[in-house]
Write a structure and sequence with these properties.
By secondary structure, the protein is an alpha+beta fold. It folds into three domains: 1-32, no CATH class; 35-162, no CATH class; 175-245, Alpha-Beta Plaits. Helices cover 49% and strands 17% of the residues. The chain has helices spanning 35-61, 68-90, 96-99, 102-111, 124-141, 145-162, 183-193, 224-233; strands spanning 9-12, 16-19, 115-117, 120-122, 175-180, 200-206, 209-216, 237-242. The strands form three sheets. A four-stranded antiparallel sheet has the order 6-7-5-8, covered by helices on one side. Strand 6 and strand 7 (209-216) form a beta hairpin. The radius of gyration is 31 Å and the shape is elongated. Mean pLDDT is 76; it is low at 1-31.
């Protein structure tokens, strides 16, 4: 038997080559841990999680569905998976195999934040923030610290600017009006709120009366005081509620 130390192959019994990694110092699996590389990866993971935490802090202040814990986990996990992809490159594997799955995986997570409730779409900005946090975590995992920090500052800064009173515009209110059914009552409600038709209309029996539920987008008299006066002066109005509050 001829044996070649520190090579990947051993020549055994006249011409048979066997691929063997256990005897090779060049094999990264059995070469022992690279503590310097692992501490660098740990730094990247911490930075990715911390930057996600900052974005989550801004979201938590606005009482959004995904807060600090969610954004921290997304940022840290994205950085961790990116570091794992880089380590796989050192082992000779495709480095994009794991990193490529982060984007659709986070997209699936963000889709769970989006829901349609009472004529309104909710959670779209939060889902986009989760996706952006994952991208920042991947950048931190690649070691591009300046780019990751600047992207975080940009995301938080834009969110703060867009929520200032100077740039905030009033969203059109959507009201759910419940009243006793009659053609006269319907026309009175349309006239008061300045609408030509109801967005949604439902009639159901309640005892000896027919009651209605109408969804409207008022063009006028949409203030809380005006609605309160309209309800108190018209007995056929059972209730008026903002759909955003339900």
């Amino acid at each position: 038997m001829l044996e070649y130390i520190n090579y990947k192959y051993i020549y055994i019994n006249k011409g048979i080559f066997m691929n063997i990694f256990l005897l090779s110092d060049m094999n990264p699996i059995f070469a022992g841990p690279d503590w310097n590389a692992e501490f660098v990866y740990l730094l990247r993971i911490v930075i990715g999680g911390f930057l996600g935490l900052l974005i989550g802090l801004e979201r938590s202040r606005r009482l959004k569905e995904a807060g600090m814990a969610t954004h921290f986990a997304v940022g840290m996990a994205s950085a961790l998976l990116t570091c794992l992809s880089l380590e796989m490159k050192e082992l000779g594997s495709d480095p994009a195999r794991i990193a490529a799955q982060i984007v659709p995986g986070v997209g699936f997570l963000g889709a769970g934040m989006i829901f349609f409730r009472r004529e309104s779409l909710h959670g779209l900005t939060t889902a986009a923030g989760i996706w952006c946090t994952a991208a920042i975590g991947m950048v931190a995992g690649m070691g591009l610290y300046v780019l990751a920090v600047l992207a975080t500052v940009l995301v938080i800064g834009i969110q703060l600017i867009l929520h200032t009173k100077a740039l905030r515009w009033k969203r059109p209110r959507v009201l759910l009006v419940k009243f006793v059914h009659s053609n006269e009552n319907k026309e009175s409600i349309k006239t008061y709120f300045g609408v030509k038709k109801f967005s949604r209309f439902k009639v159901y029996r309640s005892g000896d009366l027919f009651q209605c539920e109408a969804v409207i987008r008022p063009a006028q008299n949409g203030s809380a005081e005006g609605i309160a006066n309209f309800v108190t002066t018209n007995e056929y109005i059972l209730s008026v509620e903002r759909l955003e509050d339900l």
